[in-house]
UniProtKB/TrEMBL annotation:
GO process terms (BP): embryonic pattern specification; leaf development; RNA splicing
Higher taxonomy: Eukaryota, Viridiplantae, Streptophyta, Embryophyta, Tracheophyta
Protein name according to UniProt: RRM domain-containing protein
Domain RRM: 133-214
Protein source organism: Kalanchoe fedtschenkoi (Lavender scallops)
SUPFAM superfamilies: HCP-like (SSF81901), RNA-binding domain, RBD (SSF54928)
Cytoplasm as UniProt keyword: no
Composition skew (Low complexity), residue ranges: 1-23
Record keywords: Repeat, RNA-binding
Chain residue ranges for the region called Disordered: 1-83, 890-917
Single GO term (MF): mRNA binding
Family: Belongs to the PPR family. P subfamily.
């Protein structure tokens, strides 16, 4: 018995050496297999000639491959039949087999296997490898297609699949034979009926139809086992064609891994593959998907189908990924419908890509739909698809839904990866929730994660968004202490934060730190530096920076030129603005609607409305359509001029173009109506807003309150403020200032004083414009003492007076100096000294008016005259001499009194006009 065993094993080994001797590569594999076989248990390496007793078909999970190692004394009947999975895992456990070798198997177990009747073993193997409902079809025409074969054999029953073996030389033709697999409960009887038609004529050929005997499947299994054992005589290729194709495939994979940016090299490597398979086509579709090249991905997909290769779920998923990256979700869904029609299964990866695609285009509703379908269809979800759906809701400010999804992940036992923490922090940054963002940051550290540059970048972005640049700099120091270096994005965010504060010095300091760290600025950083130069007014350096970009091989974008164009247009230098516009075109940048809007915004700020409107014609010639921002900017320009007719004209054009009408558009209309004093028209605009279900925000209420304040209707203004509180609309400093202005216009200074107290009780401190409005009110009430007291309160609050404050206060004091007490004159001297210290100079009209008031107080000049004349323009003496010698009749007593009255009211109205326009900053923010 032992001799039989030894002779059997020796013959097997000698056969292996003989089969591998013809191929050096095979010989190496053979020697390697001999070395491994000497150290592995015998029952894990059975000779190919040994057979196992017939076993029942496996209907449950495959046997545990580690069962034999755990219990080597099992009876032979319990030992599973040879399985490639078992052999594969056993080879992986070679180290454990050496460290803990299993005891030798009893000899009689091997003898029982060897003495079994060969007929029964072979029969069981045939039954094991034979597929139910599968027939062999031979002598087919080489040009025949799958659908034609399926159409003919469908008469015997439903067909599950048709397999045509491709020819080696011509990939468009088959090798003349194939297989038909019937499906359904009648698959076996359908195959039996089809075999009865053996020998029929089919397109000029006599077909050979037989039941599948399992030889092909068994041959593949044996070959696979031989490969795993290293004893196959097919370790080499049948011909040079196989070896060449395998080399080409390897070259393609290498280029995809090492040179993905070299598109030409990838395409060239793919084209060198003769008769590419589904795997190679899938690699190319995936490559194009990562690049977002959905058109080439689709072309490769159709090329694969034209060669008769049916796409798998993996290939379809790659194509859907290409459309998702290209943000064409309609085509992605058409691929999904095609998959369902063809019966191709949608995997978890497919659903994740679809959800992620809708998240990128900002459609959380569609993302939710496919997420729920995945949840109902698949047995379990993973962190990737949860991350995509959470990202979709965070970008749309649906933080409650995002928090609920995180809770679902925790309840499902899915570990939350670091990327989801970052997504949640970014979502809280968008909504400005500083507290919860810090909570997520602390929780991230509690869970054992080490904050990365992305984590700190989320915090920096948060503090910059909420206007706390000092906090952002503290986070920057934390990064350095943690040993984490800034990247280009974090530097750009910090610089952008200083630009918002117009802190040019610190912006350039951060830029210098970036250069010291050895980083090379990118296009985004160069754009920020150009914005800083434009903010400083150093336009030549801004233009030079563009040239520096080009020297560093960076291509400027339209965003690069926009701040320069806008700055020149805002200062009224349209010649230079158009020069930069032409420079942008010569640099290869195509003007966009945003570029034209920069020209229009600059012209509107300079009130050059005719030139601003002419830009619309330039846009039409360039083939660029005006957008919502374009028309809203022009409407704001006419609103500043109080031209209601023009504002409504462009509002009509706005609607005719089919553009969205939002709250900013209505703000421009309301401002035009309120500037012109047409409050009934303003009320009609608010009614249309209500009809469109556009809620009134703080800006809208401020414009309406300011409109009633211009008319001195304090009751309407107060009623609007009450509505704001009822609707939970935020009441800000501009709202209170407008109400104070309404009280001052109505002469109700007691109500104005109460408003100031109510404002301070609400935690809102008056600003310079609020005090200026109040000083103007006391001046109109002929109470300069109260105006002077209000001025002292403003200085005590730490506010710095501006020209409008001095104008109102001094005019009020001078008008009452002749009839008021002596302390008014002391106040005039005190205010004059402060103006001299601040080196303030009034305009010629104000100097003339104040000079007439001084003439009434000091007929021949005096201390007040000498002090106040130091604030007059330098050419005041020449102007005074001219008016005295040439126009002496102008100073007639009666006429002088009339002119005093005119100049007094005119100067005050012009002064308060600047205070009523406190919405200018607000309007500028809406333009951008």
């Amino acid at each position: 018995m032992e001799a039989a065993v030894s002779s059997l094993s020796s013959s097997s080994c000698s056969g292996c050496r003989w089969n591998n001797s013809s191929n050096p590569k095979s010989l190496r594999h053979s020697r390697k297999s001999e070395y491994s076989s000497s150290s592995s248990p015998e029952h894990l390496r059975r000779p190919k000639t040994l057979s196992t007793p017939p076993s029942k078909p496996v209907t449950s999970k495959p046997p545990n491959p580690l069962r034999i190692l755990r219990n080597p004394n099992l009876p032979p009947s319990a030992v599973p039949s040879p399985n490639p999975l078992v052999t594969h895992l056993s080879n992986k456990l070679w180290l454990s087999g050496k460290l803990n070798p299993a005891p030798p198997q009893p000899v009689d177990a091997i003898v029982r296997v060897t003495v079994d009747e060969p007929g029964s073993a072979n029969a069981s193997q045939e039954n094991e490898f034979r597929q139910t409902g599968k027939i062999f079809v031979g002598n087919l025409p080489v040009w025949i297609k799958k659908d034609q074969v399926a159409e003919y054999f469908r008469q015997f029953g439903p067909i599950s699949k048709v397999i045509l073996i491709k020819g080696h030389n011509e990939i468009d033709n088959n090798a003349g034979f194939g297989f038909v697999i019937y499906g359904g409960p009648t698959a076996n009887s359908s195959a039996t009926k089809a075999v009865e038609f053996d020998g029929v004529e089919f397109h000029g050929r006599i077909l050979t139809v037989k039941l599948d005997d399992g030889r092909r499947s068994k041959g593949k299994m044996d070959e696979r086992e031989s490969w795993l054992r290293g004893t196959s005589d097919m370790l080499g290729h049948n011909s040079g064609w196989y070896g060449e194709r395998e080399t080409r495939r390897s070259d393609l994979q290498t280029i995809l891994d090492t040179q993905p940016e070299n598109w030409q090299a990838v395409v060239s490597a793919f084209e060198k593959i003769n008769k590419p398979s589904r795997k190679e086509f899938g690699l190319m579709i995936n490559y194009y998907a990562r690049r977002g090249d959905m058109h080439r991905a689709r072309g490769t997909f159709e090329n694969m189908r034209a060669r008769g290769i049916e796409p798998s779920s993996h290939v379809y998923t790659n194509l859907i990924h290409a459309y998702s990256v290209g943000r064409d979700m309609d085509e992605a869904l058409s691929c999904v419908r095609k998959m369902k029609e063809e019966g191709v299964e949608l995997t978890l990866v497919t659903y994740s890509i679809i959800v992620g695609g809708f998240a990128k285009i900002g459609n959380p509703e569609a993302a939710d739909h496919w997420f729920f379908e995945a949840k109902e269809t698949l047995p379990a979800l993973n962190a990737i698809i949860y991350g995509n759906i959470i990202y979709a809701h965070c970008q749309k400010r649906n933080m409650n839904r995002a928090e609920a999804l995180v809770q679902q992940m925790e309840e499902a036992g899915i570990d939350i990866p670091m990327s989801i923490y970052h997504t949640m922090m970014d979502g809280y940054t968008i909504v400005g929730d500083e507290v919860k963002s810090i909570i997520v940051f602390n929780r991230l550290k509690e869970c054992g994660f080490t904050p990365s540059v992305i984590t700190y970048g989320c915090l920096i972005n948060l503090y910059i968004k909420v206007g706390k640049i000092h906090k952002a700099m503290e986070v920057s120091k934390m990064m350095k202490l943690a040993g984490i270096q800034h990247n280009m994005k974090t530097y750009s965010m910090v610089i952008n934060g200083f630009l918002k504060l117009k802190d040019w010095a610190n912006a350039f300091a951060v830029f210098e730190d970036l250069v010291k760290d050895g980083m090379k600025p990118d296009v985004v950083l160069y754009n920020n530096i150009i914005t800083a130069f434009c903010g400083m007014g150093n336009m030549e350096r801004a233009i030079q920076t563009i040239k520096d970009m080009q020297k560093e091989k960076h291509r400027p974008t339209t965003r690069t030129f926009m701040p320069i164009i806008y700055t020149f247009a805002r200062t009224g230098d349209m010649r230079r603005a158009l020069e930069i516009f032409d420079m942008m075109r010569r640099s290869g940048c195509v003007p966009t609607v945003h570029t034209f809007n920069a020209l229009i915004v600059g012209l509107v700020e300079k009130r050059q409305m005719e030139k601003a409107v002419s830009i619309l014609d330039e846009m039409s010639l360039a083939g660029v359509s005006a957008n919502q921002h374009t028309y809203t900017t022009i409407m704001h320009g006419y609103a500043e001029l109080g031209d209601t007719g023009k504002a409504f004209e462009y509002f009509t054009k706005h609607k005719e173009e089919g553009l969205e009408v939002d709250v900013y558009t209505f703000e421009a209309l309301l401002k035009a109506c309120c500037k012109a004093g047409r409050m009934q028209s303003a009320l009609a605009v608010t009614r249309e807003m209500a009809a469109r279900k556009i809620p009134r925000n703080t800006f809208v209420y401020n414009i309406l309150i300011d409109g009633w304040a211009r008319r001195g209707d304090v009751w309407e203004a107060a009623d609007l403020m009450q509505q704001m509180k009822q609707e939970n609309v935020k009441v800000d400093i501009h709202t209170y200032t407008s109400l104070v202005n309404a009280c001052c216009k109505a002469g109700d200074m007691l109500w104005a004083t109460r408003t100031i107290k109510e404002m301070e009780a609400a935690g809102i401190k008056p600003n310079v414009k609020t005090y200026t409005t109040l000083i103007h009110g006391w001046a109109r009430a002929s109470l300069p003492e109260k105006a002077l007291q209000c001025y002292e309160e403003m200085k005590a609050a730490g506010l710095k007076p501006d020209k409008a404050v001095f104008h109102c206060l001094m005019t009020s004091l001078l008008s009452r100096a002749t009839v008021a007490e002596e302390h008014v004159c002391a106040g005039i001297l005190s205010v004059s000294r402060e103006m001299i210290e601040l080196q303030l100079t009034v305009d010629m009209g104000t100097a003339v008016h104040w000079s007439r008031c001084l003439r009434k107080i000091e007929r021949t000049g005096g201390e007040l005259t000498e002090a106040l004349q130091q604030t007059f323009p330098p050419d005041w003496n020449a102007h005074r001499s001219f008016t005295t010698n040439e126009n002496s009749h102008y100073y007639d007593q009666d006429e002088t009194e009339d002119n005093d009255s005119y100049h007094h009211h005119h100067s005050l109205d012009s002064g308060i006009e600047n205070q009523d326009d406190f919405h200018d900053e607000l309007d500028n923010s809406t333009w951008f």
